[in-house]
Amino acid sequence: MKKPPVYGVTSVDHALQLAVILQVEGPLTVSEAARRLGVARSSAHRLLSTLVYRDFAAQSEDRSYRAGPVLEIAAKAQSNVGALRTAALGPLRTLVDTLGETANLTIRTGRTVRFIASIECAQALRVGNREGMVFPAHQVSGGQVMLAALSDDELAALYAHAPADGSEELPNLEGLTAELRAVRSSGVAVNVERSERGVVAIGRGVTDPAGATIAAVSVSMPSVRHAPGRVKEIVSALTVEAARISAGVASQGR
Hints:
This protein is an alpha+beta fold. It contains 9 helices and 8 strands. The chain has a 6-stranded antiparallel β-sheet with strand order 5-4-3-8-7-6, with helices on both faces. A two-stranded antiparallel sheet has the order 1-2.
């Protein structure tokens, strides 16, 4: 029988309980959360707001709370994420060795992406390790590659409604759709300081045996080292290593 820790922090325990409820049981309101935990509504609201801030929860239009991107990703088959990471680590290291820039692997859940693998380059001025970080999909190169795999109708449905609490600012759908058509045509997305000032990234899709885009591999660099003349070299390297990752995922599924 498990015993509670001697120096347990009640607020942390309450937040973890709420995260489990959201993942296992589904959406709940502030009042329901307060009742389940035996706390005041104001305390439940603060806990849920913190979970939203850390992407463990998201607020729906009816003001109830549901599992957020972190828990949705955790709900995916862990073997799938593990297979992606295993298949990607070698190619990511090759990208770092070849290009001298940081290389990353991302997956998408809804309107967000999470970096599930990241290998830094050795240069003094470099983009840091992104592993575990969550970004709006439309703001990063890997996210744009994965969004481009959707049809225009699927994209419109994905961005149809903003959270009621105003915690997420949706992109202009017309502009995003036009951008993604270009990404769909080239197979490559370029993020010039869209997600972070001073950072440029170029991404390419990773596919499963059926040809569906399941992840994206990208290279991130300080904007001072980005030049049009480098794009061809980077895209060429990304194409080769994305294919290696896709082949690695396919071989693990046999």
